[in-house]
Amino acid sequence: MSEIIMQIDGIEVAAEEGMTVLDAAQKAGISIPTLCYLETLEPYGACRLCTVEVEVRGRTNLVAACLYPVEKDLIVRTRTEKVDKIRKMILELLLAHAPVARGLKMQEYAEEYGADKNRFEKEPSFCIQCGLCVRYCAEIKKKNAICFVNKGPSREIQFIPEIAAKECWSCTECFPLCPTEYLQGVFVLTKALAFPSAPMGPTVEE
Amino acid sequence: MNNDKIEQILNEHQGQPGALIKVMMEIQEENHWLPREVLVKVSEKLEVPLSRVLRIATIYKTFSLTPKGRYQVNICTGTACQVRGAQQVLEEVQKITGIKPGETDPDMKFSLETVNCQGCCSLGPLVEIDGKTHGKTAPAEIAEALKKYE
Amino acid sequence: MPRINSAAELEELRKGILAQKDPDKPCISVCAGIACLGSGNAEVLSAFEEEIKKQSLDAKVDLIATGCHGFCEKGPIVVIYPEEICYLEVTPEDVPEIISQTILGKQVIDRLIYTDSDTGTKAAHQSEIPFYKNQSRLLIGNSPKINPKSIEDYLAVGGYSALSKALFEMSPEGVLDEIKKANLRGRGGGGFPAGSKWETTRNAQPGVDKYVIVNAHEGEPGAFMDRALFTGNPHLILEGLIIGAYAIGSHQGFIYTRHDTPVLRKNLDLALAQAKEYGFLGDNILGSGFSFNVDVHLDVGIFVSGESSALMKSIEGMPPEPRPKYIRTSVTGIWDRPSNLNNVETWANVPQIISNGYEWYSSIGTERSKGTKLISLSGNIVNSGVVEVPMGTSLREIVFDFGGGIPNGKKLKAIHFGGPMGGTIPESLIDTPLDFDELSKLGASLGAGDMLVLDEDTCMVEMARLFLDFLAGESCGKCVPCREGMRQMLKILTNMTQGEGKEGDIKLLEEISGVVGEAALCSLGRSIQKPLISMLKYFRDEFEAHINEKRCPANACKELN
Ligand SMILES: Cc1cc2nc3c(=O)[nH]c(=O)nc-3n(C[C@H](O)[C@H](O)[C@H](O)COP(=O)(O)O)c2cc1C
Ligand code: SF4
Ligand code: FES
């Protein structure tokens, strides 16, 4: 495999073709915050917390590090003022849903980027829709017992009772993946099994 | 529910995951809503995970997961119709039918839905009742029109 | 009809069709565009059928149901050829009179022709009506003259001669070169040069199958020109697509369109079947050795489905969620194969460029925006409808000359382009030319060409809110900036319109906008703030009045008055 020489935060990094900027940074020991990334899953690009600035032939762009492919002479900056501003806002937007993320990744990041957890009105759903559980169940367990329903701001996750009743209690491997609250999975699962026929049509916001 | 027809649609596309949206659309057209057990069948026949079927069923407004009333009332809330007063028409219809967009009344008479631009903005505010187009509508006029449906 | 097997056979057939046409035979063209149908033209059409039968005129008059004529506001529209007499707001009761007076008696019926509401001047012929006068109807001009269900009608106006020229007189490289030199830019919203996109797909992944796709999703509220053109003249788009496929080296095309326009669906299916029968589609097209097929993908669609990667996902039968396009769909698209996507109107431009050459084409329009543009006019405007004008036409001309100005004696306040991803410009900038780059500079990208005219009673805060409200039901919700940013922006704006705006709201809106615009995954998310930002730029005082004085300057927000 051909070696690709690039630059991350002023440091020269040797990467391989097919790697993402996040892979290359991790290899070089440079940390980039992530919420929806998990090494064993396909990159997803939904949380955008891994946003970094890249420069290609003099043109700069903001991209998701977990997806952006490395290329020769790429210049990456992981902590510009703009990047930090974006990360702070993303965290603040998410903290409105998951206010009690004590001791977890979210909380650490919030401190690092100075995110104000009370910036936006609380709407505790505990779910930040990183999709780790959904994708783990689909990609690794191949059971597809949990899925996304609805769209836009009313999008949410739901266990599918028909499958969950058979598969989930003996597995629960997705619970610890949740970046906000372990018990969230238990709650959503229980709800799905207790009210299997609850309509799931497009619920109107508020 | 016409089970034979649904069965026929499913059989035509057995084992074709790519036909998912098409199949769901045909069943919706035939049956006017997608009962849960039908969605499970779609998943089995087309060999797609139920999760994808549910995801698609809940993204599109066209798909209904609850039974529909006898008359479908669609009110265009595209920007052009809004600019011409669609909101007042919508409010009037809500008052008369007692239901909000996305709902069906208890007598299963009307189902109300707001729809996006129908491509005939010159007729705005546009209302469709049971497939019949009413253009340049005023609240009073729609109230009158709704009375005709039993 | 047997298959056509060579360029000569095509011309032979065309001659035959033209020879059979009597130029003096009256032809009644009834507009069956969506708006005219909605206002009762189906009844008008049946009335004509009946009357013609009753008077046994079958052999003496032609009757066709056509695509949109453009002047939707005054529908149902009926045009009588060869005189080109244009009747507006026709009812079934008028029909016997039209037959006896105009068809048989060659008399114009005064009551049905255009009358200027200010001056009282009348115009009997289509070309004299201010709405049509001075348009350059290169794309849509044939619609009133052809029956979309008849391939012969399309052949009669020169149809498929560009395809024949491309296949027999030009190499694929030559076709590509012509499109590049013409500087045809995409009509779907981005204004991206079509030629270079074609070239990318042509050169991508050698040896792998490639696809060409028509984007006929048209999800922008207030945009209806694609449907009008495609329904009224499906072969035009098809011809463009086949030429593009030849240049790109693709043998499979897709047409992605919505399910909720049944006439389009019908006309399209018929057009494809006829094109196949005549040998314009399928194996060995016109005997040239080039083969190409097309499938129609009907979709229920939400707004984001029109985005290229989401659209390709739904063709694969997957949920329409965009993917990041660090590798473009022109390189890796449907089933990871190179896929070239263009808008309906972009494809429709191709045949005339091939027929008349790039020099002719680039003589129309401005320095960097060539050709004509279809515009759908809606909102507070006297004449809603579809107009086609050269790029560079001033907005003033579009609003006041073609559009007839603002109804009910109101004043023009602003013009909004490009729907929920576009922007608004104030009345003071009305002399701006229609041009991709000029409009972008003002913060109002042209989008698909939908122009929403707003009068003085429009509240800009409410407009900004409406667009976000629309997107809440039409975006996928996958990525955080778009989903959560939209949620918060919508909340703030809703509060403002209800008299609960707070100091600092505008700054917060701007801050969220900055993040969403740069960090969202797809172009939808990266554009959701655009209408708001443009409105803040030109109408900031209105936002401030809502917050500081709890007052709606347009008197539109009920809670504030
Ligand atoms: C959210 C979103 C919706 C879109 N909807 C449409 C559409 O309805 N029709 C269209 O032609 N292009 C649409 N586009 C643009 C397409 O992604 C694509 O750029 C276009 O079809 C390419 O064709 P063109 O280069 O000929 O314009 C949309 C883009 C986005 C981001
Ligand atoms: S920007 Fe919006 S529409 Fe696009 S991927 Fe993100 S959530 Fe979906
Ligand atoms: S980790 Fe890259 S977008 Fe979430």
TrEMBL record, chain A:
The keyword Iron applies. InterPro entries: 2Fe-2S_ferredoxin-like_sf (IPR036010), 2Fe-2S_ferredoxin-type (IPR001041), 4Fe4S_Fe-S-bd (IPR017896), 4Fe4S_Fe_S_CS (IPR017900), NADH_UbQ_OxRdtase_75kDa_su_CS (IPR000283). Residues 118-151, 159-188 form the 4Fe-4S ferredoxin-type domain. Pfam families: Fer2_4, Fer4_7. CDD domains: fer2. Keywords: Iron, Iron-sulfur, Metal-binding, Oxidoreductase. Gene3D superfamilies: 3.10.20.740, 3.30.70.20. The keyword Transcription regulation does not apply. It is an enzyme of class 1 (oxidoreductase). GO terms for molecular function: hydrogen dehydrogenase (NADP+) activity; iron-sulfur cluster binding; metal ion binding; NADH dehydrogenase (ubiquinone) activity. PROSITE patterns: 2FE2S_FER_2, 4FE4S_FER_1, 4FE4S_FER_2, COMPLEX1_75K_1. GO terms for biological process: ATP synthesis coupled electron transport. One of its GO terms (cellular component) is membrane. It comes from the Bacteria. Its EC number is 1.12.1.3. Residues 2-82 form the 2Fe-2S ferredoxin-type domain. This is NADP-reducing hydrogenase subunit HndC.
From TrEMBL, chain B:
The keyword Oxidoreductase applies. [2Fe-2S] cluster binds at residues 76, 81, 117, 121. The keyword Nucleotide-binding does not apply. Its EC number is 1.12.1.3. Keywords: 2Fe-2S, Iron, Iron-sulfur, Metal-binding, Oxidoreductase. InterPro entries: NADP_DH_HndA-like, NuoE-like, NuoE_dom, NuoE_N, Thioredoxin-like_sf. Its cofactor is [2Fe-2S] cluster. Belongs to the complex I 24 kDa subunit family. This is NADP-reducing hydrogenase subunit HndA. The lineage of its organism: Bacteria, Bacillati, Bacillota, Clostridia, Eubacteriales. The gene is hndA_2.
From TrEMBL, chain C:
The keyword 4Fe-4S applies. Residues 461-506 form the NADH-ubiquinone oxidoreductase 51kDa subunit iron-sulphur binding domain. It comes from Sporotomaculum syntrophicum. One of its GO terms (molecular function) is FMN binding. Its EC number is 1.12.1.3. It is an enzyme of class 1 (oxidoreductase). Transmembrane segments: none annotated. PROSITE patterns: COMPLEX1_51K_2 (PS00645). Keywords: 4Fe-4S, Iron, Iron-sulfur, Metal-binding, Oxidoreductase. Belongs to the complex I 51 kDa subunit family. This is NADP-reducing hydrogenase subunit HndC.
